[in-house]
Amino acid sequence: MTPMEGFLGLGSNKGDRAAALKAGLCRLEGLGVRILVVSSVLETEPVGCEEQDLFLNQVARVRFDGSPEELLARTQEVERLAGRVRSRRNEPRPLDIDLLLFPGHERSDSPPILPHPRMWRRRFVLVPLAELAPDLRNPLTGRTILEELEGLLEGEVRPYNPGLRVEERSGQ
């Protein structure tokens, strides 16, 4: 089987968020997912359920020798090992890993749907993806990641600075 190369989105807003992202990447590698490069970590507002803590998000370019279904199963295992329990949509989570975009493996008929159907409306996905692959094109529109970001207003993103205290961030 030809290796799949593409992008995963990682997020955490419960517990030690930075440690969860780092451990998630390490566990993915332990399960045969080769991490090629990772974006900067961003701190972002929650989308879909605002009464939550802020997220840390990043994108990883990966290579995997298997099918999209196998990769999805491995990412869900890593989420489970991080303590994620799926009880309702958009709940706080120690780790969330989404299959974003795997050129040449587009599919809309069964999970995982590729590219991820909501990624094009999410700054917390497109900003770190643009850091890694600004000229990558949306296979649905032909537009580059940077072009997809133009005019996209949803969700504030900012560089994560672990040394900054919450009061300093909010200006208090």
From TrEMBL:
Keywords: ATP-binding, Folate biosynthesis, Kinase, Nucleotide-binding, Transferase. GO terms for molecular function: 2-amino-4-hydroxy-6-hydroxymethyldihydropteridine diphosphokinase activity; ATP binding; kinase activity. InterPro entries: Hppk, Hppk_sf. Its EC number is 2.7.6.3. One of its GO terms (biological process) is tetrahydrofolate biosynthetic process. Belongs to the HPPK family. This is 2-amino-4-hydroxy-6-hydroxymethyldihydropteridine pyrophosphokinase. It comes from Candidatus Polarisedimenticola svalbardensis.
